[in-house]
């Protein structure tokens, strides 16, 4: 754990703290454009902070000569999805159209990401490496 990784992890956790606020606002007005846009922005900032955290961990592992650990992080399903240009462009366009025409449906994108991308995790990296040693 480097100081830089610690600070970025704190940033990611800080962005996470806005999710309950955004969720509560959506709960008050599900079809309101303001709450939906705010939730989308919070989710976007949270995603960018997560990617920054992962890429920092990858670089730190590479500097320490832990190339397999860095590659395992790079091959995580969520990282591959969030760095896929097709996924970024198509989801960004879909999100923009939904926020303009039917903001209440932007939650469908969130649920899809959680269930089909983030919910399908890789084998636990730490456990995998401890078994290989």
Structure explained in plain terms:
- 8% of the residues are buried.
- With 133 residues, this protein is an all-alpha fold.
- It contains 8 helices and no strands.
- The radius of gyration is 17 Å and the shape is globular.
Q: What is the CA–CA distance across the termini?
A: 21 Å
Which regions have little confidence, pLDDT < 50, spanning 5+ residues?
Answer: none
Count the DSSP helices: 8
Overall geometric form: globular
| Major sheet summary line | none
Q: What percent strand?
A: under 5%
Cα-atom radius of gyration:
17 Å
Instruction: Write the H/E string, N to C.
Output: HHHHHHHH
Question: Which structural class best describes the helix and strand composition?
Answer: mainly alpha
Keywords:
133 residues, mainly alpha, 0% strand, globular
Summarize the structure.
This protein has 133 residues and is mostly helical.
Which helices and strands, and how do they pair?
Elements: H1 3-16, H2 19-28, H3 33-63, H4 67-74, H5 77-82, H6 85-101, H7 106-118, H8 125-132
